Amino acid sequence: MAIKRSVRGGVPSPYPRFIFHGLRSAQLLASIVVSGIMGYFMYYLRLENFNIPWTFILLLTVSVGTFLALLVTIILYNFTYLPPRCNWLLNGGISVLWAVGFVLLSRSISTSHVIEKQCSSEVWGGDAAAGVCRDYKALWAMTLCGTVSTLAALALDVHTQLKTARRGVYSIPEDDREFRRLGEKESFRVRSAGYEPPREQRDFKILAHESALELDEEIGYHNRYGVDEISER
Questions:
Q1: How far apart are the first and last CA of the chain?
Q2: For the segment 189-230, what is each residue's pLDDT rounded down to a tens digit?
Q3: SS3 state at 59
Q4: What's the Cα-to-Cα distance from 187 to each of 190, 192, 195, 220, rounded to whole Å?
Q5: I need a labelling partner for 153 at 20 to 30 A (CA). Which of 25, 66, 134, 163 fits?
Q6: How far apart are CA 64 and CA 43, in angstroms?
Q7: HSE-up of 7 (CA within 13 Å, CB side)?
């Protein structure tokens, strides 16, 4: 059975589709590239018995966390409902980690001037060093992309949450206001002093009144008979 993705549990998504998926694609690309480069660097550092910098650990953590957050939220978006409040809480925490990781990475590579220099064997004295230079440039660029895209996604979440909250404030339509004013007035069924019901209504009331009198007389007769019989005994 085919699942209709547009249903989302019966609740339409408040996010603008193209901006939402565009920012998430940038976050996904940044998280994949950063986690791959970090895994590569950390593998060879452990192989050479070097200590792993805390910047690498933080970048690996935030990139994997971003990937998991994107996976969970896209499932909610497609098959149930993704609340903007929940999403901006996730993006808020992730954006702080991205920003801290980007600042630490920029500070660590500022001394070697990797960003300013050309990644060639003549400048770095070999192909291996030139390859490391290219990896650092890609890492810095993707860390910047992850930081900017996550901050932009956070701004989109806040904007969507505020828009959803404004739409959720109930305003009484004009038709309901007129209906309320009519309810506060006297009912149309209030009879004036000179009102006389139709003839059919009067005949029905007279017949009902006569039937009630006959029933009362019959009940009173049986009651009196029962009392007399008991008194005679």
A1: 85
A2: 555 555 555 555 555 555 555 555 555 555 554 444 444 444
A3: helix
A4: 6, 12, 15, 41
A5: 134
A6: 16
A7: 7
Rounded Cα distance between 114 and 134, Å, is 9
- Alpha-carbon distance of 219 to 76, in angstroms, equals 72
The two structure tokens encoding residue 161: 């949450």
pTM for this prediction: 0.66
CA 118 to chain centre: 46
Among candidate residues 134, 138, 146, the one with its CA nearest the CA of residue 64: 146
Residues 164 and 230 in one domain: no
- Same domain? For 51 and 158 the reply is yes
Query: Within a domain: residue 165?
Result: yes
Give 69-117 as a DSSP string.
HHHHHHHHHHHS---HHHHHHHHHHHHHHHHHHHHHHHHHHHTTTTTTS
How confident is the model at residue 129, as a pLDDT? 86
Write out the residue range of the structural domain in which residue 215 sits.
Answer: 202-233
